[in-house]
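HUMAN:
Just now I want nothing more than another pair of eyes on a protein record. I would be glad if you read both lines and explained how they fit together. I have put the entry right below:
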Amino acid sequence: MDLMGMMGKLKETQQKIEDTKKRLDTVLINEQSADGLLKVTLTANRAIKSITINDTLLEDKEQLEDYMILVLNNAIEKATKTNEAELDAVAKMDMPMIPGMDNLFK
């Protein structure tokens, strides 16, 4: 077993993961309520970039709060799936499978 080669590969993979995380800052996830009154954009790293609220929602605080929770949760779920899929792809592509190492990058 070539330990030096594996360590080099590990470093290379960590760099690719860092590069992927940086790139995910530029991947935008758009989500909106079914009626389009509330729109949210966040990065695949789950940073909120914008929230657009239709004026009609400003008249009903409770409805606005419900919309915020629903739309943000949906957007975060989509962003998380995108994030995990991208990072898993990098890890699977580059990593020699070492038992117990598969949780290292989670």
Notes: Strands lie at 28-32, 38-43, 48-53. The helical segments are 3-24, 61-94. Residues 22-94 form a domain with the Ybab; Chain: A; fold (CATH 3.30.1310.10).
